[in-house]
């Protein structure tokens, strides 16, 4: 019939992010697949950040008007060949038929294999329906139906990518019957069935457009979906794969993953004392982490093989990017299950992609090119903690980390403690989670540095830790009065709190994802981030301010669902579906996050309670295939949109970070302490707020007062001269700074003998250029005890 009409086709979208399974080969195959709705969704090639199709689904029809698209039935079961081995068996059931699909990648070819078996009404036939999105876009693809040396091929090309779909019978004969290429929304195979009740069109080409391909199959067949640099190369790979029995690829996949799990010895220990629902989730979560690792860039892991609310839009990146925080959280979980090689690969990848000044991109493509440009201090601190965790366990394996750690800690002390963004990538200020991670990195990283650098890192850690409450907590607010507490930690404190302890917290802190901002002051915004202070050993679980904040946070953020209790990120969060269940579109209403259930489980462990209920809740919040979501629905059910309380929303699924949190909570429960709490941090603080003995004045955080008896260090970014005096420039001194390996230039001022009420006046110059202003630091009376 020639070329299909209707270009450019409907605006392309991705599949729903509600994945039931993800998988890849452990061999050299550079292909990753996802399952949703009981069919193959996005397939990634040749990297884990590059989706190449929207989906590969099936229609079952009799050619006389009856037809069913199986993904719309939602009457299917999904099982793995063995626990934690992504060879997938799917059974779709209908009163007239049963469609069995078995899906597995080839071990060493860039080919996905699907075995198709239709039983029931003998008049019915299956039809494979393929939607190419080559190069990460559904626009401008070209589709063709070709004869390749006696084989029918459904193929597509765009730019440097090509794909090919071939099919054979169990007897290795040509399996495709009628075939067609079409433009989505007008001349594709689905539209043919919708209008004619059968496959009647036989277009040979379609596009450039948003295209789809369809092919009639016998009741038993094997499909091979190959990828390459052209349709021809993809066809060669697919044909090669079909020369071998499907059973061979299935067994290779099963055997490789079984061996890999067996090599992760701690995994068995984590499962030993868990109920079945939690023990099974251990293997699934371990598998999910391993699946998300790339092969071109070993150690790189994307945040999710999904696009949040992807069925509403086409977004190239989705969550197919590397977030250094997510990567470190995931690498830590791999360490917890004994996948040391994979954890080391992550550290090496991070070392290779560190910026010259020591920080990491907010997120990046696999090759290291930054995508979003914000700076989050915790993302600079986390790689240091990963290096320290490997070193603590004697698992660095010769990996060089000193230079990476030194540059990272240098960035922290030269730019902290105020972070340009919080961990939710929204607001600047002082954040308890970020500060906890940074303090822990300074302490743990000090053990990997030379003495002079280590001493300064520890001094900064002690200073920031001692000031946490002054910087990030409030008291005597309407919320404090409402819940009967003396004070609590806020979500984000203004950066001015560093140098002005009278800094008002009543200034409005905008909430970015709400259609109408409620104009809440910083003092009225609470998050669960403060729990990290307990997890990393900076504060005790029974610390008075921790308990007070817990009371406020539970009142504002905790929700009870049929699968268990869960928590919102912060009050008035807008990142989630709208109240009517429609997709997040830049605004919405934030929902509960299962990974926060895991974080609360860690707090309960630190408080001496069994975190098992939190593991059980997380497992129950997973999809039927065991995929943990970014968010769960926490309002009245909306069945028409598939939104049920306690179950996944349209946000990312699986969220690798959630699976990492699950594994670490299981490991923490087995050890009786947080698995990722650095030993050096616990040894230094043991949950107690340190007494402020040395304050550090920096250009980005110019403190305004110190307590009586406290030492003072002036730390400049460049070599300089400091001129200082007392009480209006009396007894003036002029002294040179000295360089430190962490990239600061230091001067110790003799302040411990100064009594309360005295004032230090100073200024500084770099070369011949003076700062242009005077600075004052008041000596105040020291409180009787920290608090």
Question: What this model shows, in words?
Answer:
The protein is of the alpha+beta class and 787 residues long. Helices cover 29% and strands 23% of the residues. It contains 18 helices and 31 strands. The strands form seven sheets. Strands 6-7-8-9-17-13-12-11-15 form a nine-stranded antiparallel β-sheet. Strands 23, 25, 26, 29, 30 and 31 form a six-stranded mixed β-sheet that branches. A five-stranded antiparallel β-sheet has the order 5-4-10-16-14, covered by helices on one side. α6 runs antiparallel to α7, α6 (324-336) packs parallel to α17 (656-671) and α8 (377-392) packs across α10. The longest helix is centred in the middle third of the chain and has 22 residues, at 451-472. The mean pLDDT is 95.
Topology diagram in text:
Blueprint: E1 21-24, E2 32-36, E3 39-44, E4 53-61, E5 67-69, E6 76-82, E7 85-94, E8 97-105, E9 111-120, E10 125-132, E11 141-148, E12 151-158, E13 161-168, E14 179-183, H1 189-196, E15 205-209, E16 211-216, E17 220-228, H2 231-242, H3 246-263, H4 265-272, H5 276-291, H6 324-336, H7 340-352, H8 377-392, H9 402-415, H10 432-446, H11 451-472, E18 473-475, H12 478-483, E19 487-489, H13 531-535, H14 544-557, E20 558-561, E21 564-567, H15 594-606, H16 612-620, H17 656-671, H18 679-685, E22 694-698, E23 705-707, E24 711-716, E25 721-726, E26 730-736, E27 738-739, E28 745-749, E29 759-766, E30 769-770, E31 775-780
Parallel strand pairs: 22-24, 23-31
Antiparallel strand pairs: 1-2, 2-3, 4-5, 4-10, 6-7, 7-8, 8-9, 9-17, 10-16, 11-12, 11-15, 12-13, 13-17, 14-16, 18-19, 20-21, 24-28, 25-26, 25-29, 27-28, 29-30, 29-31
Helix pairs in contact: 4-5, 5-17, 6-7, 6-8, 6-17, 7-8, 8-9, 8-10, 9-10, 10-11, 10-18, 15-16, 15-17, 16-17
